[in-house]
Amino acid sequence: MRRRLLADHGPIVAEIDRCADAVADPWDTARTADRAALVDGLRTALESEGVLERLPTVLADTVDATGHDLQARPVAGPPYVVVTSRGPLLRATIDPGRLVIRFDVFDVIRNAEPGRRVTYRRRDGVELAIGLE
Predict the structure, then answer these.
(1) What are the phi and psi torsion angles at 115 (to 5°)?
(2) How many CB atoms lie within 10 A of CB 38?
(3) Is 36 helix (H, G, I), strand (E, B) or coil?
(4) What is the mean pLDDT of residues 58-82?
(5) CA 22 to chain CA mean position, Å
(6) Which of 10, 70, 86, 118 has a 20 to 30 A CA-CA distance from 32?
């Protein structure tokens, strides 16, 4: 599935990577603690580049590769497409469970010290994770 997704939708994965770069570029350090600005900035970048509207096709194609059918046509919004602090997340319920596709472009850094905020760091590239929950 992973290979097929990358082969069929490599340009979309590359565009997700570029959008994440654009979000992180203005940061004055390697990290940010502003989750809302990160998520809103990534969503805006993905929308302006037309990536968000193409992600339901990625989801549908991946479900098709599993040999299962979608219960409904996915849309570029919850519950199918969600922009998180890690990156875009695609979800579909299929017969064996919930298929989840994550495009991780940011790491979430949790500090063990009390009172320290969670920070977010730009990953080097896109980590693609596909799983069944």
Answers:
(1) 85, -10
(2) 24
(3) helix
(4) 92
(5) 15
(6) 10
Query: What pLDDT does residue 71 have?
Result: 83
Nearest CA to 83 out of 130, 19, 32 is that of 19
User: In this structure, which amino acid lies at residue 113?
Assistant: E
**pTM beyond 0.85:** yes
* Total tally of structural domains belonging to the chain: 1
Which residue is it, tokens 């929308």? Answer: 47
Cβ–Cβ < 8 Å for 87, 18: no
**Other C-beta atoms within 10 Å of 1: how many?**
14
Range of the domain at 76: 2-132
* Residue 37 identity: A
With contact defined as beta carbons under 8 Å apart, do 33 and 117 qualify? yes
* pLDDT 10s digits, 76-92: 999 999 999 999 999 99
DSSP string, 38-88: HHHHHHHHHHHTT-GGGHHHHHHHHHHHHT---SS---SSTTTEEE-SSSE
